[in-house]
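Colleagues,

Please find the record for the two-part complex below.
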Amino acid sequence: MKVRYLLGAVAALALTTAAARAEYPERELQGVIMWGAGGATDTVARAVTPHVEEALGKKIVLVNKAGGAGAISTAFVNAAPADGYTLLYGAENPQVHGVLALSELDYSAFYPVNVLARGIAVIVAGKDAPWNSVKELVEDAQKRPGKIKMGSTGPGGLPHVVGALLNSVEAYKVTAVPFDGEGPGLTALQGGHVDFMPVGLSAAGEHIKAGRVKVLGVVNDKEVPSLPGVAPITKDFPGFSKYLPWGPFYGIWVKKDVPDAAKKTLVDAFRKGAENPQFTQLMVERGNVMMNISGAEADAFLKKWQAVTTWVLHDAGATKQSPEKFGIARP
Amino acid sequence: MTDALSYFAMGWLDPWLLMLTAAGTFAGIYIGAIPGLSVTMAVSVLISFTFTWPVNDALALMAGIYMGGVYGGSRTAILLNIPGAPSAIATALDGYPLAKRGEAGIAIGISTVVSVIGGFVGILALAVAAPAISDFALMFAPRDYLLLAIMGILLVGSLSGESLAKGVFSGALGVLIGMVGLDPMTAEQRFTFGSVNLLGGIPYVAAMIGFFGVSEALVQLHTLHMPAIKQQVSRIVPSWKLVKRFLPLSLRSSALGVIIGALPGTGGDIAALMAYDQARRTVKNPTRPFGEGAYEGLVAPESANNAAVGGAYIPMLTLGIPGDAVTAVIIGALFIHGLKPGPMLMIETPHLFWYTVGNLTLANIFLLIFGLTGIRFFTRIVECPKGILLPLILVLSAVGTYAIQNNPVDIYWMLGFGLFGYFLKMYGFEVGPVILGIILGPLMDVSYRRAVISVEDSFPAFLWDLVSNPLTAALTLALAALLLAQTPVASLWKRRR
C-alpha cells in the first residue's frame, strides 16, 4: 500500500517536473481587470483578449477586481507568483497612486507587456452653454470665480488632471463636482447639473456627434480626425504643448521577475492581438490613438506620463506626497 | 410601423434566436437564484464567450439572462432567506415567512406572475415612452437622489421589528459598513486601517449572504429537532381572483420600478426596497401583517424589480447611458460588436431598439413558462431534514461568496457577518436595516456632498434648492408628507375629521 503511494508520488513529481520544462503557456492564464464590468478598461480588455488567445493558443480568464482606483488589482497581481500566468489589465491610475498616498505600488514594479492605446481628452459643455471655445470658458471662469461647475471624477481622474494642467497654464477657478465616473458625469452634464467637463473622447464621442453636448476643445496639439474643425487646446493656450501628448491609456502588465521566455511569448501574442483590424478599428472609432508598444519603449512612455502628471498635480496642491519621494524627476 | 413590427418579430420568427432567448431566460433564473452569481457577472462572461457570434444572437441571450436573473433571485430568498441577488432582498422579508408557513409554492407562484406583470409594464414603458422617460431621468440632480435615498432609509422604521431604537442601530451599522473603503469624492481612505484589502470596501453581497443566509441557518440550529414544515403544493398558480386583487398594487409598484430603473444612479435593488416600503404604507388590509408573510410584501418588490429591467434599458437605448450595472456591461458588449451605443444608436441602427423590445417580451413569456414549472421540486428542498439543509445552505453561501470576485477574504467577511447577524437576531436586532444602510448609506453620502458642493458649500443655498426646482420640490413635499404621516399630529388631524 505504502509502496503504491510512494510510486504515485514519484510519478506525480516526474509529471510536474516534466510540465515545468514544457512550453509556456501550458495552462489557462488569469487576466485581472482593475476597473468594473462595462467601463472603458473593461471594454478594451474584453475586446483585445480573444485575438490574443488566438495567438497564444490558451484561454485568458478575465476577472474584474475593481476598487481603490485600481490599487486592489495592482496589489493582487503583485502578490501572485511571478510565473507569467497572472496578467494585469490596467489604465493610467497606478501611476498617480504614490503621490495621492493610495498605494506605494505603481507600474515600475511591473513589466509592460503592451501599452495598447492612449485616449484623447476633450473639453465638453452643455449643449446650450454660452461658450464656444475653451478660451471663452476660462475667461468667464475668471470673471465669476467658483460659479461655474465642472464635472469631475475625483482626485487623479482625467477631468481633475486636465483641469490642473489648464490651470497651470492660465489660472482660473471653478467648482469641481465629483461623480462616479466619466459616464455619470456626462449624464449630469446633459441634465444641466454641471456646466462643463473634461472627459475622454471615447466616452463623449457619441454624445458630441448627436449634439447633446458641445465640444469646446481637444486636449491635443493638433486636430483629431473624428472631430474636424474643433480647435486643439494649444491654439489658444500654446503653453499647454509641453504637457502633450497627455491622456488616459490602457495596457497589460506582468510582474517584473517573470521569466524572459514567458515575457517574450506574451509580448508577441499581445502585439499580434492588438494588430487585429477589428480591434484597431474599435479603438480608433472610440477616439483612441493606437500605440501597441512594449518593453523599454513602453517604460519610457509610462515614465514621462508619470512625471508630467504627478508634478502638475503636486504644483496644483492636489498631492499628499511629493513626487520626489518616489524618485520622479521634474519634467 | 411595419419596419418596427418586423424588427420586433425578428427574435420570434428565427428558431435559433428563439432558442437562445429561451436558454438565456432559463439559465438566468438559475444564475439569479444562486447567491453571489450575479447577472452582471454572467453577462460579462458572455461577452468573451459570444465575441465571434453575430451581435443579434448575443443580444438575445443577454436579454434572456437579464430578465431571468432578476426574477431568479426571489427563489432562494423565499425558500432559504438568502436573496439570490440584491434586488431580491425585499422579497425575503415576506417571502421567507411564507415558506416557514408552508406556503413556499404559492409564494413562488405569485412572485412569478407579478414579475411577469412588472416585466411587461417595463417593456411597455420602453416601447412607448422611452425618450420622454430618459429626459425625465436626466432631470434628477444630486439633491433629488439624496431625497430618494432618505425616503428609502425611512424604511428602517418598518423593518425594525420589536424596537425602533434597535432598528436605527442596525441601520447605522449598515451605513458604517458601507462607508469603508475609498471616499468616492476625495479618494481619502475611510476605516481601512492601512489595509489594501479594505480599499475597495466591504463587498456588500458578502454582507448580504452572511446577514441573511448564514445567520438564519445558525438561528435554525436552535430548533434542529423540529420536523421540517410540510409545504402545500396543491395550489401553485395563483387564482385569477388573487391576481386581480393584487393587480393595482403590482401596477403601482411597476411604475415605480420603471422610474427607479431608468435613473442612472439606481437599479432594481433600490426599486424593490422602495416598492416594498410603498406597499407597507398604502395597503390598508394586507393578507397578513407585513413581515409575517403578507402576499402584498411579495407583490410589490417582485413587480418593481422586473419592471426596472425595461426601465434600465430606456436610457441605454436612447442615450447610451446605462440605467444600472447590467446595462453598463451590455453597452460594453455593443461596442465590442462594432456598434456605437449612444444617442445616435436609434438613428444609425434603428432595428436594434425594436429587436430588443421584442427579445425582452419573448424573455418575459419564457419567464412565465419556466417560472411556473418546477416549483414543486423546489419546494421539496425546504422539506429536507434540517441536518441536511443547514450544511447545504452554508456550502451554498461559501461558494456564492467566493464567486463574487474569487477572493477567499470575502468568505471570512461572510462568515463573520453570519455570526454577528446571529447574535443580533438573538438580541432582537433585525438584520434588514443593516442591508438597507449598506445600500443607501453611500448613495446618501455622495448625493448630499455633490448637492452641497454644487452650491459652493452654502447650506442656505442648498435648502433653497430643495424647494425652488419643481421636481425637487415635489420630492421634498413627498418626503415631508411621509414624515408627518408618522407623527401624532397626523393622527390627531385624522381624528378631528
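DSSP finds eleven helices and eleven strands in chain A.

Comments are welcome before we finalize the supplementary table.
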